Structure prediction request, 117 residues.
Amino acid sequence: MMEGMDDQVWQPLTAVEGLPLLGGEGRFRLLERAASGLAYLIHYPAGVASPPHAHDHDSIVYVLSGRLRGAVEGVEAVLEPGDSVVHPRGASHHVEALTDAMWVEFKSPLPGRPPIA
Prediction:
């Protein structure tokens, strides 16, 4: 069962798939973990971005607050609260916080190594 949000500790987020974030650092909380995947709560301050990267799992991003600009395989989009996007396994993608932004990111199957740190 998920702990109360106030009980969870934010961890610094400085790298994605072993690559350093651009423009600063974010933070994350592990929400849930199952044999088939996991869910993170992620926050980037305005101006923070992930470098282009790909991974060994699918990710589904659901934006809770703020605005994100990103691209999947070169197709760009701006995401606002209530929007979602899939980053398919092996697809090059990146994301940039246009404003302070928070989202839930589901990853499945369970990544072979920690995807964020």
In short: The radius of gyration is 13 Å. The mean pLDDT is 92.
